[in-house]
Amino acid sequence: MCSRTFAPSSTLLHRPPKRRTPPGSSQRLGSLLRSQLTNCGCNCVALRLVGKCCDQGGICAEMFKHGGDTLETLLLDLADGAFARVLQALRGDGIAHIRRCSGPEEIGPITIIPLLYKLFAELVHGRLYPLLDRHHNKDQAGFRKGFGTVHHMFAVSLLQEQCHEWQHHVWLSALDFKKAFGCVEHNFMWRSLADQGVPAGYVSLLQNLYSGQTARVRTDCMSKPYDFQRGTKQGDPLSSLLFNSLIETVVSKFKQKWLAKGCGLKKGATDLTQLTNLRLAGDILLVAATLRQLKAMIEDIKIASAEVGLELHPDRTNIQSNVERGSGRPKEANVHVDGMSIELVPYSGSVKYLGRLVSFDRPHDVEIENRIRSAWKSFMTHRAELVDRQYSLASWLRLFDRTVTTTMLYGSATWYLHTSLKRRSEEHKERCCA
Fold first, then answer.
1. Which backbone phi and psi does 397 adopt, to 5 degrees?
2. Among 301, 304, 331, 381, which residue's Cβ finds the most Cβ atoms within 10 Å?
């Protein structure tokens, strides 16, 4: 998308539609998006998709990039028509199952969406993003401009250092949902959008896009069409907005309750400085001062998420603390919350959060050693090319920087380096380049 962000127009529907698809609503939405496409240009919108393969219709992003004024005029005329029906016809019905790791639970569905649908969905995304972003708390860093993984990694690093310096107890719980994007209930998504100020016209448009959906699974062959009524489409530009909106509703339902009870860690004089959770899309890290507070917070999230179709993954949810044995730490290796057994990580243990190993015992040493191991793994993956002397030095350096160096320096902005750790990282680079 282009860098310009357009405020929602006052000409949108002010009254809820009396029917599911009110007469003329798609034309009014099409006119609004026509103005956005005129200002952005289809070339600018398609730049985000350049370099990708063609869709099932044989259309690639380079066609939009080099289509010129003629193609842009045709798209503008299309946007002026029945926009909702156009998007519904273009939404596609193919789902490819991609195996990420070993095991049947690690097969991820990716929706195969026509490129023309993605182009117009990007325009709808540009309209809805400023409306929803103002309702999202700073705890959420997923799919938001100006936020990223490094912000949460830095917050966790500061939390570890300050609690160690001031001898404060802290309890953390990293929550993971089972197939989060594919299990959410649609009705709760539309309710979340309405509660966060999205006009009824856009809610009706999205309802029409998700109603009566069919899909076919493509592995080595194509399955028969089947209906599905849950989840967001991974690969759809609108999925991130819909999921973030739903998660915001789930957490905000209990956040005021947590603040009133004094849950979390208070770092200032107001509730704005009281840290209760960090979120990156569906990855939630709960923060509490006592184990009792943390168990109550996990139970609240478990109940609220079950209402919208989400389920906590007990094998990937864990609890971690800087409290050592004999200072209020339970002797059991697991903590039971509402019938679910959650692993209690030992004080010297570590948990991976957003790619960073979080440990209260030598936190920076543990993370840098983790980065060195990951960099060596990346080096061995590309070993055949990196040890081949037929490649030029410039090509070798470009490959090395884009694989080994980027892996090694992931999250380096949050490191606290002393002399020995700096020497350790330099030795790793020298061994790779030898």
1. -65, -40
2. 301
Q: Which pair of structure tokens corresponds to residue 263?
A: 């849950």
Could you tell me the CA-to-CA distances from 225 to 55, 86, 212, 214, 338 in Å, in that order? 19, 21, 12, 6, 38
pTM of the model: 0.78
In angstroms, the CA 330 to CA 195 distance is 41
Any idea what DSSP says for residue 222? B
Instruction: Give 345-403 pLDDT, tens digit per residue.
Output: 988 889 989 889 999 988 888 998 999 999 999 999 999 988 888 888 899 889 999 99
H helix and E strand count, the chain: 17, 14
Residue length, the chain? 434
Digit-coded pLDDT (tens) for 1-58: 333 332 333 332 233 333 343 434 444 444 444 555 555 545 555 545 555 666 666 6
* Cα angle value 311/316/321 (rounded, 5°): 115
DSSP string of 263-313, one letter each residue: -SEE-SSSGGGEE-EEEETTEEEEEESSHHHHHHHHHHHHHHHHHTT--B-
